[in-house]
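Notes continue from the previous slide.

Worked example: a multi-chain complex. Inputs as given:
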Amino acid sequence: MAYTQARFDVSAAPLATRTESAWADYLRSSKARRLSLEAHEALFFEGDPAERVFEVAEGSAMLYKLLPDGRRQVVEVLGPGDMFGFDVVGVYDCTAESLTPCIVHAIERRDIETAPALQEHLTRCVLAKLHAMHDHAVLLGRKSAFERVASFLIRFVPQRGVLGCVGPTAGEEDTRTVELPMTRQEIADYLGLTIETVSRVFSDMRRRGLISLEKHDRVMIRDVCSLCRCSGTH
Amino acid sequence: MAYTQARFDVSAAPLATRTESAWADYLRSSKARRLSLEAHEALFFEGDPAERVFEVAEGSAMLYKLLPDGRRQVVEVLGPGDMFGFDVVGVYDCTAESLTPCIVHAIERRDIETAPALQEHLTRCVLAKLHAMHDHAVLLGRKSAFERVASFLIRFVPQRGVLGCVGPTAGEEDTRTVELPMTRQEIADYLGLTIETVSRVFSDMRRRGLISLEKHDRVMIRDVCSLCRCSGTH
DNA sequence: CGCGATTTTGATAATGTTCAACAGTAGTGG
DNA sequence: CCACTACTGTTGAACATTATCAAAATCGCG
């Protein structure tokens, strides 16, 4: 092996800084278009010619695909900083729809293709998405309904449930409240379940004291680590 | 919208040619290492420091992830031309294992990072993989066992079952024989099913006259279009 | 308060899993 | 060449999980 992980890390750090800054420069420039969306507004449809790439600035959105008989699979859930609208074949492979009111930046494909620093940033984002899709495939292919919902909830607790999880702060109650940007139907379509199953799992988790529901979309996780142990991943 | 799909296509074509050629140049150079693998040999493990990127030259391979209790999800099946071993966090997120005897090219991450033309090629490959993962998420999240196996089989018929499928040649028997590079267990772990269910679906397809099995891993598809209609996608 | 939409709950059905036994296949060595 | 063995794949029966269908409860909002 040519160099160790430590050496990779140090060489990667300045690269990231460099591309982040080029990206920030681009977004400040007049070329980037800023779009405001209401909740549940489609940004583009599967099959539309792919002319722009987008970045979520505020709020959240999703990408989904439909089967001819109407079954839907939400393939990605997007938050601030996430990019989407990449393509290979000239058309979008998914439909993009806002979940909450949100602001997205639209970037002309042309601008990216001619600016290596922007390309680097884009590549980084695509790699992160591919990584996330691998995890999601495990969830869809091998996890039970309970594990899927647990994994889903932990996703909304920053820095937890992922590799290098910081764990609970010693001695403290490890309680966190998360705001879900999605309806039960959207959660179901993301997790490959039905709306009823999602609802039943939420109720089951409540009965077991793992969570409590302040509102339908406000979930208090009683103990993040306990829930994490239900996710199948740990 | 700034420009039409047609304009995107023509601008994309020369780009592809340019990166393909840089890629071919790199592979001919002494920097690319050529590795020979037997069937079922691991190339790297989930968690290993990610120092190189790979390309399949001959044969096929897979990427999989394991849950702590041993459940496995095969997240990608790779054939000639496919790249793998990308990372975001410095370590591989999957284990890579050959399915058949195969030859892979190993490319130092450093070489790619310093050569924009190689980066473009890599970005293209990652985008294609992301696209494939979206389709796979639909399969795992929303398709029945029968549809999953049908989709899987069609995957091995070049130019069919995908967007812009050429369809059967008029008047001809639309029969094709495919060689599966995977065992039933591997297919099951790829499709999010059990080995028994995969076996039962194969038998069911045989009884219905959709396929015939010359050997366990040689499947004759009686009529590609009929099978395609069973895949849920069309 | 009352209406429409979303969510929850219940009863039943279907799909796929699990566990167990059996069959086919390939490889080995007498 | 055939018997033996180990492995992979197939089939069957019982079971579990999740889906489906139907109804009740809750929420959001004018």
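Summary box: The longest helix of chain A spans residues 116-142. Residues 183-185, 195-196, 199-200, 202-203, 216 of chain A lie near DNA strand C (CB under 10 Å from a C1').
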